[in-house]
Amino acid sequence: MEILGPFDLPQFMFSHFPCVDFGGNLFGQWPVGIQFEIGREQVSRATELHEFIFGEEDDCILVSQDWTSDDMDIRADRVTPLFLTPGVFPNASPSRFQTVEVSPFDETPYRLNWARLPLNAFNAAQMFQAVANRERGGAPSIGSGVYTIDDRKKLIMHMYDDRGLDVIAADPSTLVPLYARFGCWILANQRGKIDLRFKELTTAAPS
What we know:
Blueprint: H1 9-16, H2 26-29, E1 33-37, H3 44-54, E2 59-66, E3 79-80, E4 98-102, E5 110-118, H4 124-136, E6 141-142, E7 145-150, E8 155-161, E9 164-169, H5 172-182, H6 191-202
Parallel strand pairs: 3-6
Antiparallel strand pairs: 1-9, 2-5, 2-7, 4-5, 7-8, 8-9
Helix pairs in contact: 3-4, 5-6
């Protein structure tokens, strides 16, 4: 598989998303974001969001958050790390990653593995389905936390399980088209907060 140039993930996070970690709940950690409802019968929403966000790009940063085997939720052989999950990488899984060990205060240590990949190097629909399968008992199932980054737009996308998906950005204007197009998918209990953040940006100023 073609691995594109290196990417300094720690520096990217420090520069554009300070205080955000990969412990989940990106929406709760950052003031500029949208939380979408997915649901067991609507995993295709994640693929549609991914295509809308990354469709004009040639590549993205794919990040896998992996815990040790003692800490991972291994309920069967079906649960695998992202980069070893069958069906996600049509040709071959990436053989080389960049890696950093993370030891958060009062949380379980984990490892981040990432690579800059062409968008056609992985099957996004299969990847999101495997994320959803983790809670459903289906196979294949990804045990990793999965994050997709657009370093040009300074945006991070994370489907945390079959219930929902977070998208955060450094600049609110980056998310306006996403809000305008897919606002009806916003998680109901977050709608008021998100509408308050974005309606001013989507309302034309009076002439």
